[in-house]
Each structure stands twice: as structure tokens, then as C-alpha cells.
């Protein structure tokens, strides 16, 4: 799957998530083509996060602070499966 053809980084991240369950931080950024590694992923998720919050939904991604300061984000297999079903429609 060539996700580079989707111009919007957030769109690439959501579109590619079914193929990347469990990919985290810098690996996720590299595989989707988001500059600045895990920090770029955090930036890309800012707007979808705001939209989720605005409609009373939880974020569709998981996160942790493995080094105590910087968050690392990823999509679980369950969430990736939901996105895959939506892509298949």
C-alpha cells in the first residue's frame, strides 16, 4: 500500500493504520512518511484529537510515556480493524 499518495499526514496515518497495528512512535512516523518522528505523529494527531473531543468521542489511538517525558502513540489492532472495515466500504 502506497500511502504517500495521500497528501495530508493525518489522512495517511489513518489510512495506513490497518496495516500498522502496534507500530509506535518513530517507527510509525517513518512507515507513514511523517517528518520529525514521534513528535510529528503527536502533531498530526492534534486536529483529529480536537475533533474527537468536540463531539464527545474518545481518541482512537493509544499512548504511553515510556521515557517519562515524551508520549508515544499507536493504534491497537481493534482500532486498526475498525479503520480497515471503513476502508473496505
Protein described:
This protein has 89 residues and is mainly alpha-helical. The chain has a single domain (3-88), classed as Orthogonal Bundle (Arc Repressor Mutant, subunit A), CATH 1.10.10. It is built from five helices and two strands. The chain has a two-stranded antiparallel ribbon. Helix 2 crosses helix 3 (37-44).
Largest sheet: 2 strands, antiparallel
Question: Biggest sheet: strands side by side, in what order?
Answer: 1-2
Strand content: 5-15%
| Spatial shape | globular
Low-confidence spans: pLDDT under 50, at least 5 residues?
Answer: 1-5
CATH architecture: Orthogonal Bundle
Report the average pLDDT across residues.
Answer: 80
CATH fold call: Arc Repressor Mutant, subunit A
Order of helices and strands: HHHHEEH
Strand tally: 2
CATH secondary-structure class: Mainly Alpha
SSE map:
Elements: H1 9-16, H2 25-32, H3 37-44, H4 46-54, E1 62-64, E2 72-74, H5 77-88
Antiparallel strand pairs: 1-2
Features:
disordered N terminus, single chain, 89 residues, 51% helix, 5 helices, mainly alpha, Arc Repressor Mutant, subunit A
Structure summary:
By secondary structure, this protein is mostly helical.
